[in-house]
Hints:
- By secondary structure, the chain is an alpha/beta fold.
- The model has no long low-confidence stretch (mean pLDDT 95).
- Helix 1 (16-30) packs across helix 6 (175-184), helix 3 (95-109) packs across helix 4 (125-138) and helix 6 (175-184) runs antiparallel to helix 7 (186-201).
- It has a single domain (7-218), classed as LmbE-like (Rossmann fold, 3-Layer(aba) Sandwich), CATH 3.40.50.10320.
- Helices cover 44% and strands 15% of the residues.
- Strands 3-2-1-4-5-7-6 form a 7-stranded mixed β-sheet, with helices on both faces.
- It is built from 8 helices and 7 strands.
- It has helices at residues 16-30, 60-75, 95-109, 125-138, 158-162, 175-184, 186-201, 205-212; strands at 7-11, 35-39, 79-82, 113-117, 148-152, 167-170, 213-218.
Amino acid sequence: MEKERHVLIAFPHPDDEAFGVAGTIIKFTDAGVPVTYACGTLGEMGRNMGKPFFANRETLPDIRREELKKACQVMGIQDLRMLGLRDKTIEFEDEEEVADKIFAVIQEVNPSLIITFYPGFAVHPDHDAYGAAVIRAAMRLPAEERPKIYCKAFSEGCVDILGKPDIVHDVMDVLDRKLEAIKAHRSQTEASVAQWQDSLGNKDEEFLQWVGKETFWTYKGPVVD
């Protein structure tokens, strides 16, 4: 991993960072690199309410806020920004206005690297819309001042269009802490983590490859079909 001046993580929901990026974040913070997380929403429209249930539609926003704070503590993130957008509506927001919020953070923290979703290749409409706004914000900077942008992509067939990811981080050495960050989002992840126990115990190679390697595409501009 390259030494960075400052890393900006930009995802729309609490727990978006945990599954695919937590190990990378931990490695940066362990190396003394400051990390800012610009989280778009509180995930208040999430369908999971814990297993067994301990949340409801009224309590879920506050629960997810506290879970996010706990996950950030595990990952060593000291600068958490909650941008106040509404879950499952980002695709209907004015993209320039969302970009304004993100650009203000970019101007303040001056990151050398931004990590977000690859628009069009991240399955959920909020993922695609927020990633597009993040990239729009970064592109406002002159090319010589623009940070690198690493994107997460996982839609079916994305490799056929984008090619193989050009950034691969092995995070097996911090896997225990990555799993702790995932578990911090208890309302959303408890059932999944319970299902993983056999795979972890049996050292299932396919599972460990999925959870122990974090892959990214360097954003190089719009994809033209």
